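Table 4 source record.
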Amino acid sequence: MKHIIISIMFCMLACFANAQTPVTKVSHSKAVKTDVTTTGEMTIRKPDYICISTDGGNDQLIMDGTKFTMTTNGKKHVTDSKSNPMFATFKKVLNAVINGQPIPTGEDLAIQKSDGIQTITITPSGKKRQMFTSFVLIVDSKSSAMKQLRMNGRNESYTEYTFK
């Protein structure tokens, strides 16, 4: 009986630790005339799991611990924040936002505040070739709610997630 009660309590805690938010994804490519817009949801399971899934699960951005996996158009890109400083900073910022903590500082990080909104820009330092040239995260300062994530690529392309 004691094991059943503990199992039920564990399941309840796991359910409350999950948060799902509707999301709209816009993919922009300079080479294509029209932007591609899809919808889906973002799931957050504390402490270290975030999944943004759009287009019926065909496109995903997953942070699982230190591992980041992006699946787009059937192509999978994987990196680890242990070996990629830009993603290490991104992970620190996301953890701070999700946990309602102050945003960390760093030379690859710029924060602008205006009208209750924080715009956090992460730009990689060094010459290492990256899939993205910068990340821009827009956060509501009062609620710590993520409003938008824009991942800027090379050649003026970008992927932008807007959270409801």
